[in-house]
């Protein structure tokens, strides 16, 4: 016999931050409450295509540039190759890299070029979200509605995302990056959260307090949350990394994501939020359903945060200049990226 839990709100009347207060038998109501409380439809006008990326302004970029001290550069991308994590879920495959011209062709003189010049060329075929990537605003819908109150079918058609295509963000995603190494803080002995661990707003705030002033989070920042799951895959193999159990953000962090006014957030996991999701009945990625189409938040997944985490721990500094531009693929609802942190 199931027991219905009354939804608990905080002193402001908004859905609370404690996962214990979730009605685990009613994802529909829990999602709807947060979509209503933390939505941003109309905040930047009816024609907006950027959502929370609007929080990044020129002053924020100047602030971010001032954080560069040592000049150390860290790529935050996982590999893009056939050895990647994908297992074919919804036709997501690993990249297929094919050479169309090779050194052998050049040696044999079969390329048809004059005066001995030769060359190599290649092509890659891959889903845009098979490795390190951004989820665009056209990636997730809520009851047939897309970001800013548009009908999903008017936004994304067989021709692509006609309104909020990822190309609109191509020159936008450069700001102050902040690493929250939750894995290292909560599990200092391993640096790795166990699969299924739901990161709460309290966990995020406690990590900030432990790391110090350089990890304070505010408007226009891009927050990177390290769980340590990717570290585990490098030691033990991919396993169920793509789509299986994982540590990640609790649905109850929606309020934190809204009130901090961050521009974007990324994790080292496949799905950003905790998996399995926090319900005893069928549910799938409820935090996505709140934050992408309702809040307008750009989400990054499958980032490699290990080298950055080691440098931040060594220096005792957790903020840096972050450049993470998507490829301007017209009409795409996501994009592979090579995020760069400059310390």
From TrEMBL:
Any one GO MF term held by the record is: arylformamidase activity
The family database entries (InterPro entries) matched by this protein are listed as: KFase/CYL, KFase_sf
A Gene Ontology BP annotation from the UniProt entry: L-tryptophan catabolic process to kynurenine
The cross-references to Gene3D superfamilies, in alphabetical order and at most eight, read: Putative cyclase
- The molecule here is called Kynurenine formamidase
Q: Where is this region: Disordered?
A: 1-25, 84-111
Compositionally biased region (Basic and acidic residues) = 1-10
Q: Please give the superkingdom of this protein's source.
A: Bacteria
- Which PANTHER family would you find in this protein's record? CYCLASE, PTHR34861
- Tell me which Pfam families the record gives: Cyclase (PF04199)
């Amino acid at each position: 016999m199931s027991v219905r839990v009354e939804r608990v709100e905080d002193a402001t009347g908004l859905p609370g931050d404690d996962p214990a207060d979730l009605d685990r038998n009613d994802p529909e109501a829990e999602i709807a409450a947060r979509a209503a409380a933390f939505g941003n439809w109309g905040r930047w006008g009816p024609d907006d295509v950027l959502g929370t990326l609007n929080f990044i302004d020129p002053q924020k970029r100047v602030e971010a540039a001032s954080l560069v001290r040592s000049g150390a550069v860290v790529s935050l991308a996982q590999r893009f190759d056939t050895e990647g994590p994908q297992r074919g879920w919804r036709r997501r495959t690993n990249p297929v890299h094919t050479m169309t011209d090779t050194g052998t062709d050049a040696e044999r003189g079969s390329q048809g070029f004059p005066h001995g010049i030769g060359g190599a060329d290649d092509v890659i075929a891959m889903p845009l979200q098979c490795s390190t990537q951004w989820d665009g605003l056209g990636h997730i819908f809520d009851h047939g509605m897309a970001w800013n109150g548009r009908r999903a079918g008017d936004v994304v058609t067989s021709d692509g995302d006609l309104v909020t295509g990822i190309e609109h963000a191509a020159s936008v995603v450069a700001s102050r990056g902040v690493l929250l190494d939750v894995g290292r803080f909560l599990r200092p002995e391993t640096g790795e959260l166990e699969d299924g661990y739901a990161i709460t707003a309290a966990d995020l705030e406690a990590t900030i307090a432990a790391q110090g002033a350089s990890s304070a989070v505010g408007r226009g920042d891009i927050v990177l949350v390290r769980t340590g799951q990717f570290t585990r895959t490098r030691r033990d193999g991919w396993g169920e990394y793509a789509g299986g159990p994982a540590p990640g953000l609790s649905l109850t962090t929606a309020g934190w994501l809204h009130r901090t006014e961050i521009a974007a957030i990324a994790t080292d996991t496949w799905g950003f939020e905790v998996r399995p999701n926090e319900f005893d009945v069928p549910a799938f990625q409820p935090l996505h359903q709140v934050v992408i189409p309702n809040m307008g938040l750009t989400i990054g997944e499958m980032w490699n945060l290990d080298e950055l985490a080691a440098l931040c721990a060594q220096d005792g500094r957790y903020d840096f200049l972050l450049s993470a531009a998507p490829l301007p693929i017209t009409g795409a609802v996501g994009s592979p990226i090579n995020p760069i942190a400059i310390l």
